[in-house]
Amino acid sequence: MDIYSKKSDALLITAVIYALAVATGIAVYQLVNTYGIIRILVADAAATLLVYFVSLTLGNASAYDPYWSVAPLVILPLAISEFGVWNAGTGVLMFCIAYWGVRLTSNWAYTFHGYARQDWRYTMLREKSGALYPIVSLFGIMLFPTTVVFLCLLPALYYIQTGGVNPVTCAGFVVCLAAATLQLVADVQLHRFQRRAKTRGEIIRSGVWRYARHPNYLGEILMWWGVYLVMLSILPDYWWLGLGALVNTLMFLLISIPMAEKRLAEYKEGFAEYVAQTNKLLPFPVWRGR
């Protein structure tokens, strides 16, 4: 077993990759002389490019997978230190995003099996794009998600410049915490089911998965609407910053979920019946009318 397939070695490699990505992002941030949020965007792109070039060396685009949850954990505290304020509101928002990010990164680490294989979606894109795969990987697998996460984080980057708490702000915090907790519960239930399942073709029909096919995706969608609500409660004139949460929602509805369900239909016995009996996202009984 080489260092690319052994999990402990692969995790160490990933840690080094992300340490270099953070260092690259910080260096670029310090070199760019413009508005703070634009500097963050440029630094974010530079860190993504570092991960991309390393992924080419590894021959595995899954090197990017933790970026979705790691980047906000680095960006937000640095942004607060650079041009934000530390108060009750920004502190609670930082806690919410840290809770979400640490949990999601931990789930990635639990399901990560090394660099001997990569996410099936990336392999599919490589097979379909052929010689164009390096470009598809750069823009589709890496820069597009980086842009989505940045757009989702924009409301937080505006909010931290003033902070402030009112009842609507508190509602936003509750949405964030509930969303991350829903993801936690959904993933724990799924992992337990997978350990007990006798075959790969079994379908989970218990817990939050009883009525919804993608409760973990619902949590991811709600998380960023919660962050947006926090910002909107204090800065209503910046309503247009909901673009990030909207793009994130559409990404799951139009790309992630259809791709996942197409693949699940290939090997999950009775998947069509499962689809007919459950909601896509909401973990409640299907209403059929009369």
Provide a brief overview of the structure.
The chain has 10 helices and no strands. It is an all-alpha fold and 290 residues long. α1 packs antiparallel against α2, α6 crosses α8 and α8 runs antiparallel to α9.
- Count of helical stretches: 10
The biggest sheet amounts to: none
N- to C-terminal distance: 59 Å
Q: Please give the radius of gyration in angstroms.
A: 20 Å
Query: Total number of β-strand segments?
Result: 0
Mean pLDDT: 92
Strand content: under 5%
Helix-strand makeup class? mainly alpha
Taken from the alpha-carbon principal axes, the silhouette is globular
* Proportion of residues in helical segments: over 70%
The arrangement of helices and strands along the chain is HHHHHHHHHH
Catalogue the unreliable spans.
none
Task: Describe the protein.
By secondary structure, the chain is mainly α. The chain has a domain of 194 residues. Helix 2 packs antiparallel against helix 6, helix 5 crosses helix 6 and helix 7 packs antiparallel against helix 8. The chain is globular and about 55 Å long.
Characteristic terms for this protein:
mainly alpha; 10 helices; 290 residues; 72% helix; single chain; globular
List the helices and strands and how they pair.
Elements: H1 7-31, H2 36-58, H3 67-83, H4 88-111, H5 120-129, H6 133-159, H7 167-196, H8 215-234, H9 243-267, H10 271-277
Helix pairs in contact: 1-2, 2-3, 2-6, 3-4, 3-6, 4-7, 5-6, 6-8, 6-9, 7-8, 8-9
